[in-house]
Specification:
The complex is a heterodimer of chains A (387) and B (259). Chain A has 387 residues and is α/β, with parallel strands linked by helices. Chain A folds into two domains: 331 residues, no CATH class; 55 residues, no CATH class. Helices cover 19% and strands 42% of the residues of chain A. Chain A is built from seven helices and 20 strands. In chain A, strands 2-1-5-7-9-11-14-16-18-20 form a ten-stranded mixed β-sheet, with helices on one face. In chain A, strands 3, 4, 6, 8, 10, 12, 13, 15, 17 and 19 form a ten-stranded mixed β-sheet that branches. In chain A, β1 and β2 form a beta hairpin. Chain B is of the alpha/beta class and 259 residues long. Chain B has one domain: 3-Layer(aba) Sandwich (Rossmann fold). Chain B is 35% helix and 28% strand. In chain B, the strands form three sheets. Chain B has a six-stranded mixed β-sheet with strand order 6-9-10-3-11-12, sandwiched between helices. In chain B, a hairpin with a 2-residue loop joins β4 and β5. In chain B, α3 packs parallel to α5. The radius of gyration of chain B is 18 Å and the shape is globular. The chains are: A alpha/beta (387), B alpha/beta (259). Chains A and B meet through α5 and α6 of A and α2, β7 and α3 of B.
Chain lengths: 387, 259
């Protein structure tokens, strides 16, 4: 499947699309709505900071809270150097995409919460592709300093003009001692797009990393496999993934966690629904120290005979005295559940819809109401497609 | 008394096996019927067929509810007509909170949710996923909460006391009486008798142990053996006979009828 992305790379316009005079106020209502559905609120209400990159230029960047900073990564490197963070969690040699990003990088964000600061509202970062057939290669660095708490909502979206394109996003996360970082990412791509996020997270002693990933709109070729390394004792990583693959979508996603010290814990959970697309739900837990606890859960609902869900859960114990488990299930909606709800007066469609919504429901704090509503609407459409 | 449910010569197959072999049963408005019978006699099949679940194929006979034939209607239409069921082992519904489900059941009784939940010790459960990690008693109370707000005319109860500890049986019994309109207070100066008459719901209640009869009074009892009703009458007397002599005595009636 990698061919799609590689072919696409041949066709792309390798030009910089810069729009320094762009003003967020000029954004059309259609685009505004699209962004809201991607978790990005242009009013910045209930947000502690806001970063907006359109194609190859940063059009908005503002920090509204003393406890954290948000800026263009290039500016941050000029200001702080960041040698100890730049390509330190990931290597440019990992694959053709990391290599590409190392060579073609155009901005990206730098977000840091300061020592012991508790960021009340999420910071939002938007990577927006407005032109057709271009590539966006960004490099992001996020640091949660010791004892701090940070929540980031990242929305990646393609505009109405975009049919195909390539998005490569390098993200390196550093969660320092005792810090807590919640990272919520929503993808709303165009149908013919190839998407290659490359993410690594380093989690220190007593620190917590929590990732939520939602992708409900079609993407022709999405591939991501973030790796969290729990470096210190009692470090925790959680990955929650919610995917909907419509016909023509190919989504190969998962998460890997390496538990290196005693007391480390990890949970990788995915809920996927296919109405005709392909989903590969991966997960890989590697226990390297005694006394770690980790659980992997891949659950898929296959609602169409042409869809495909392939769950690949992997557990790798490298020492004794580990507690690692996995649970994988792929199937259709249980008839028993539908009839249970029908006995309460719900029609078959209403029952199916409620079950799918429940199946994909993740309680994520700080999600905008519009996004929740949109998720609801999308899920109501699913069962119409499925029947 | 008005005839609410009428079952005529009902034959039901599950898979390729005939489980019910000609059931005739009438339930009038306000009556509670207890259904006894050994394991595998067809009790759950009977109420599943009344509710209209798939997998229970009616090969002969009919079911009439409120004067309307419902033999071929899907479950939700039967629910809308006023039939409700308490499952013996309802499935967990992941990600759906009990509150959401109860609100969907409620239609017009939404305002009563909090009150009923409190009476059933389920206030905190409203925020939990339906039947996920519920104990035996919690499952049964949650079923009754759903039915209370749904408020059906005809209630099918599948072993409401199974898996419930003694302490909770009284609470379950209380909830069933409330559901069936059997415990009412004088209202707006009208006599209890009149209020009762208006409020009373009908029920078919499957019971294995008969414990629930200590709390909920049944008007009639039936014994199901081998897919047929072999005996009917005073529920307490029937229960007494079963306790004393076991279902062997019922088999004797069954054999007699077969012969």
């Amino acid at each position: 499947m990698d061919n799609v992305a590689k072919e696409l790379m041949q066709e792309l316009r390798e030009e910089r699309i810069e729009d320094k005079n762009f003003d967020l106020k000029k954004i059309s209502d259609e685009e505004k709505e699209l962004l809201l559905k991607t978790g990005i609120d242009l009013t910045g209400k209930s947000r502690c900071g806001f970063f907006f990159q359109k194609d190859h230029s940063i059009v908005h960047c503002q920090s509204l809270f003393d406890g954290a900073e948000i800026m263009d990564i290039d500016e941050a490197r000029a200001k702080y150097g960041l040698e100890e963070y730049w390509w330190k969690a990931l290597s440019p040699d990992k694959d053709v995409y990391t290599k590409r990003a190392a060579e073609h990088q155009e901005h990206g964000y730098f977000i840091r919460s300061f020592k012991d600061a508790k960021v009340v509202y999420p910071l939002q970062a938007c990577l927006y592709l407005s032109e057709d057939k271009i590539a966006q290669d960004v490099h992001n660095i996020v640091i949660a300093e010791e004892g701090s708490e940070l929540h980031i909502i990242t929305g990646c979206a393609a505009g109405p003009k975009v049919r195909s394109g390539l998005h490569v996003g390098i993200s390196e996360f550093y969660v320092k001692r005792g810090a807590k970082l919640t990272f919520t990412m929503i993808h709303n791509w165009a149908e013919e797009m190839a998407v290659r996020p490359r993410t690594a997270i380093l989690v220190e002693k007593d620190a917590v990393f929590e990732s939520n990933y939602i992708c409900l709109l079609p993407a022709k070729d999405l591939q991501m496999y973030p790796t969290a390394t729990l470096l210190g004792e009692n470090a925790v990583a959680t990955f929650n993934t919610v995917l909907l693959a419509r016909p023509g979508s190919y989504m190969d996603t998962g998460a890997r966690v390496i538990l290196k010290q005693k007391g480390c814990r990890a949970e990788v959970i995915s809920r996927t629904v296919s109405t005709g697309g392909t989903i590969i739900a991966r997960g890989h837990l590697i226990g390297e120290a005694s006394g770690v606890k980790a659980h992997l859960e891949c659950k898929g609902l296959l609602l169409s005979p042409t869809g495909r869900i392939h769950a690949i859960p992997e557990l790798e114990g490298r020492t004794s005295d580990l507690d690692m488990s996995h649970e994988a299930a792929v199937g259709k909606i249980a008839k028993e559940e539908i009839e249970y709800l029908m006995a309460r007066g719900l029609s078959e469609e209403e029952a199916t819809s409620l079950i799918i919504k429940g199946f994909l429901s993740l309680d994520i704090e700080g999600l905008p109401e519009e996004l929740k509503k949109e998720i609801d609407n999308l899920l109501t459409e699913i069962d119409k497609e499925a029947m | 008394m008005k005839k609410l449910l009428e079952i005529i010569d009902l034959h039901v197959m599950v898979g390729d096996k005939e489980i019910l072999k000609g059931i005739d049963l009438e339930v009038n408005t306000g009556e509670v019927h207890a259904l006894f019978g050994p394991n595998g006699s067809g009790k759950t099949t009977l109420i599943s067929a009344i509710m209209g679940f798939g997998g229970y194929k009616i090969t002969k006979g009919k079911i009439i509810f409120s004067g309307k034939e419902i033999t071929d209607l899907p479950p939700y239409e039967r629910a809308k007509l006023g039939i409700g069921i308490s499952f013996q082992k309802p499935p967990p519904v992941n990600g759906v909170k009990l509150k959401q489900l109860v609100e969907l059941c409620a239609r017009e009784n939404g305002r009563l949710i909090e009150r009923y939940a409190k009476e059933l010790n389920l206030t905190e459960h409203l925020e939990r996923e339906v039947n996920v990690g519920f104990s035996g008693g919690e499952v049964k109370r949650s079923e009754l909460l759903q039915l209370l707000v749904q408020s059906p005319q005809m209630v099918l109860l599948d072993e409401p006391e199974s898996g419930v500890d003694l302490e909770n049986i009284a609470l379950i019994g209380k909830a069933i009486n409330l559901l069936l309109g059997r415990k009412v207070e004088p209202k707006n100066g009208r006599p209890i008798k009149q209020v009762l008459k208006e409020k009373r719901k009908s029920a078919i209640m499957i019971t294995h142990t008969g414990h629930i009869l200590d709390y909920v009074e049944a008007d009639y009892g039936h014994v199901l053996v081998g897919g047929k009703i072999v005996c009917g009458g005073n529920p307490r007397e029937i229960l007494h006979t079963i306790k004393e002599y076991g279902y062997n005595e019922c088999y004797r009636c069954f054999t007699k009828e077969e012969g």
